[in-house]
Each structure stands twice: as structure tokens, then as C-alpha cells.
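Sequence in, structure out.
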Amino acid sequence: MYFRDIMSLTSLKINAFLFFKLPTAYFCGVRLKSIDKHKCITTVKHRWINQNPFGSMYFAVQAMAAELTTGALVLSYIKETGKNISMLVVQQKGIYTKKAVGRITFCCTDGEKVLQALQETLHSGEGISFWMTSVGKDETGEEVSTMEFEWRVKVKN
């Protein structure tokens, strides 16, 4: 199997994708800041449009930003294979440890897990499930939430 050395998906392309295909995330302020083979970083700022009744960021907005860090990595690696591979979130877990206010930055460093899962599904032809983690921190560097997503990838026939 062949993976190119250069990631072809950029922050600009993914943010444009958000605008056209996931406008709720875009208008809530979710933005992809950087992506490479190993990690992906998104940010979202607490604003009126994404707050809950208690004056902090709504949990679903945090989940959107966290899911984007994992999903962008999966999508990037799938694109690099040149193969027709489906991807789907099958489970999600979230732990919220602090009130989310200000700019929250989510980071996923599970690129290697994606590579291994894609190699396995391309080799076996079977669907492969794997967990990825994204950690959200506020502007002081304090953790506000940790999200885990179970992804399933499978070669389409």
C-alpha cells in the first residue's frame, strides 16, 4: 500500500468544506487550524450563538470541534490511499471537566491509529473499528473536555 508523503487536505479546504457541507459547525465558529500526518488541531470560541443557558459553550459544539480533529485525520489518510473507503462514527464518549469559555483548542494526535486501521482494512477487506481521542483546552492550557470517537473504516465494493 502506498501513502504519499504530502497531506493533500489543508485547513483552507476543510474549512470551506465546513461552510458548504456542515454549516452548523461553521456558523458556531468551529475552525480547523492545522493538520499533518500525526495530529489535527481545531479551535472554537465561546460566543452567543454556541452557548448553553449557563453561560458556557454548549457540549455539542465542543463535540463538533473535537470530532473534526479525528475525522479530518481519517479523511486525509483515506484520500491519500486513492481507494474507495467508507468512514463512520459508531460511538462517542465525552468527559467535561471545566466550564468552556473563551477560545477552546482541540487536538488529536492519533494519526498513526488511522494509518494502521486503513492498512488493515485494505489488506483484509473487512471493516475495522478504532478509537481516537481529542482533548480540548482553554486559553490558559487547562483541559475542559476529552472526547473519544470510535471510527469504522471499510473498503467499498
